[in-house]
Amino acid sequence: MNWHVLNRFFKFPILLLTSSLIITNFSFAAPIDDANQAYEIGNYKLAKDLYQPLAEAGDAEAQTNLAQIYNKDDSLLRDLPKAAYWFTKAAEQGVPLAQANLAAMYLYGEGVEQDLWRAVDWMLKSANQGYALAQNNLGIMYRDALGVNRNYEQALKWFELAADQGYKPAFNNVAMMYREGKGVSKNRYEVIRMYRKGADLGDPEFMLKLAQFYFSVEPKDYKEAIVWLSKPELENNPVAIENIGVIWGMPDNEERDYAKSLEYIKKSAEMGHVNAQLNTGIIYYKGLGVPVNYQNAYDWFLKAAKQKEPIAQFYLKEIYSKGQGRKKDLVKAQVWENLSFENGVSAGLRDSFLHELKPKQKEQVVQLIDQCKGTKFEKCD
Predict the structure, then answer these.
(1) Given 127, 159, 190, which residue is the final one in a domain?
(2) Biggest alpha carbon–alpha carbon distance for the chain
């Protein structure tokens, strides 16, 4: 699990739970202020000692924050049963954050015995109070059949309620429901509207999603895609830069420009983006708008291959097996063949050369592969 200052990402794939400090105008103002200050600076032992008497006296704010201390995975004080205990106390007083956290603990049996009914019940209580995070989580539960029967209509309902409050993760969830036609008819306008909401807030992730939707889903709009990919927020984003290059090289782009395509893709590749390194290699290997240059192709394939890119490794196998810009070498061809297969290249593309190798050469293949893996792909060629 990864903790952040304000948000906790559950180790399970779907629930985002908050670890935000609860601050209210409840009683015991001075002690709670001291406890909150200790929590904020990371002195959890002191914060626990200060929250404890307040929590025992029934202060819901202290109960919630004490539970979060016990729920922190980067703390020596971690104690999930105690976290569940204090979340329960606060949840019973109607604290929506505590209710959502308690729901997740019941859903996955962390600190409590797994109880799907209680998980749904507490998440629903929190969501019904208008807590956007819980509404989004409840949508995920309905979408993925977690503790409830799968119901896309209910999922969309809760996603939209969270989105209406400006909860950004829900923007994406609503968009995907309309994009995939789950619980609703596919609707291009709604997908764009949801991505646009996030993009208009200056979120680079949504700008990228919006642009990629424009250039990958019919009817494509390359110009609008480039507008979003060229936003200042994405100026140094290697994925966005590569995407601009991909657009300029698209076969159905009436303004296709291979020179611009290579310019942007290569720029992204030089930033270390593995997919752009692969594509730069392919451009040179196939001569897409430039003369075929096997040496340049080799250089870029090797960079990507060192990042365990299986298709790049496959192309290195091709280069060595055919002697394209490199001396033909079936030992190295077999090395890259094996590595590409291990990293995900389809078995249908396998082209073993072992039958052409002598016993000593087969030993070299094994040694080179071990050397490659032992050096984290730095010494593979």
Answers:
(1) 127
(2) 82
Cβ neighbours of 33 (radius 10 Å): 12
Per-residue pLDDT tens over the stretch 63-107: 999 999 999 877 788 999 999 999 999 999 999 999 999 999 999
Per the structure, the count of domains in the chain is 2
Does 249 fall in a domain? no
In a domain, 19, yes or no: yes
Q: Is residue 67 part of a domain?
A: yes
> Angle, to 10 degrees, between the axis of helix 274-286 and the axis of helix 310-322?
30
- Which pLDDT value is given to residue 22? 54
pLDDT per residue as tens digits for the range 277-317: 999 999 999 999 899 999 999 999 999 999 999 999 999 99
Q: Look up the domain containing 111 and give its range.
A: 1-127
CATH of residue 75's domain is 1.25.40.10
Q: Taking the model in full, what pTM does it have?
A: 0.81
For residue 219, say if its preceding peptide bond is cis, omega within 30 degrees of 0.
Answer: yes
Cβ neighbours of residue 14 closer than 8 Å, sequence gap 6 or more: 137, 140, 141, 144, 146
